[in-house]
From TrEMBL:
Signal peptide: none annotated. CDD domains: ABC_MJ0796_LolCDE_FtsE. The keyword ATP-binding applies. InterPro entries: AAA+_ATPase (IPR003593), ABC_transporter-like_ATP-bd (IPR003439), ABC_transporter-like_CS (IPR017871), ABC_transpr_LolD-like (IPR015854), MacB-like_ATP-bd (IPR017911), P-loop_NTPase (IPR027417). GO terms for molecular function: ATP binding. Transmembrane segments: none annotated. The keyword Nucleotide-binding applies. Keywords: ATP-binding, Nucleotide-binding, Transport. Residues 17-256 form the ABC transporter domain. This is ABC transporter ATP-binding protein. Pfam families: ABC_tran.
């Protein structure tokens, strides 16, 4: 049973996810490469946290290690106080399916299924005995993200922005505790980027916890907090506070100044 009483000792806010001394070393290289180097990081409940850093600094590896997609080689990851690092593969898959959602740069949808069925698939897998509820939830998500009219379209018959909004729907279909996004706008033009970031901002404003990797300061400026990685180490951390459309530009400038100071 999850321990929901865990809270951040500094802010007092409830903790959703925590990395303690998280390490990932690849032993396939000679010498071995330590890509994530003993990171301590707390993600508070309902927080939108962004991970930035130069290419190769370990952002995706940190995200995958925290989400159980990849096994860390040291340290621990706790989801609402429950240590995930001691779980077997089967239990970890269950946690990923039921408690975590993922959005990647590419959608990775099945070509032989339409958009709606691609979104429905994980929801049915997570709750096989409750097909009606899964269908209702998925149809509500399609409406909410403005893609109900393309639900029966094939995956090549929609725009990049619509496909990424469908990825967000799929990630939310199992009502996850944490949504992880790895460069979700990396393959999109600027109007589609805004479309997808608006969708993610809505998800956050409705109370979801988000952890996102991005290279794009305009996307990062949507977050509550940005952490910066260098060579697998977490070297700085900046609270941005609540995002608002009115303050968007000033906030992006403030973030850029901070990032330049870090050598970004
Ligand atoms: N399977 C692997 N074996 C060995 N080294 C790896 C492996 N996967 C990743 N790396 C190395 O780990 C380092 C960090 O990779 P990672 O993808 O986490 O960085 P990143 O900050 O997300 O980079 P980018 O912004 O370019 O996506 C890189 O130097 C990469 O080459």
């Amino acid at each position: 049973m999850a321990d929901t009483s865990v809270s951040d000792q500094v802010s007092g806010a409830p903790v959703m996810l925590e990395a303690r001394g998280l390490t990932k070393t690849y032993y396939s290289t000679d010498p071995p490469t330590r890509v994530v180097d003993g990171i301590d990081l707390i993600v508070r409940r309902a927080e939108f946290l962004v991970v930035m850093g130069a290419s190769g600094s370990g952002k995706s590896t940190l995200l995958y290690s925290m989400s159980g997609m990849d096994r860390p080689t040291g340290g621990n990851v706790l989801l609402e106080g429950r240590d995930l690092t001691c779980l077997g593969d089967k239990e970890m898959s269950r946690v990923r399916l039921n408690r975590m959602g993922f959005v990647f740069q590419q959608a990775y949808f099945l070509e032989n299924l339409n958009i709606r069925d691609n979104i429905l698939l994980p929801a049915l897998k997570a709750a096989p005995g409750d097909k009606g509820a899964a269908i209702t939830r998925v149809d509500a998500l399609l409406e909410r993200f403005g893609i109900a009219h393309v639900g029966r379209h094939g995956i090549t018959q929609v725009s990049g922005g619509q496909l990424q909004r469908a990825s967000i729907c799929r990630a939310l279909a199992c009502e996850p505790s944490v949504l992880f996004a790895d460069e979700p706008t990396g393959a999109l033009n600027s109007s589609m980027t805004t479309e997808v970031m608006d969708a993610l901002t809505d998800v956050h404003e409705e109370g979801s916890t988000l952890v996102m990797v991005t290279h794009d300061p305009a996307c990062a400026a949507r977050a509550d907090r940005v952490v910066y990685l260098r060579d697998g180490l977490l070297v700085d951390d900046r609270e941005l506070g609540k995002w608002s459309r009115e303050r968007a530009e000033g906030r992006e400038d403030e973030l850029l100044t901070w990032l330049r100071g870090l050598g970004f």
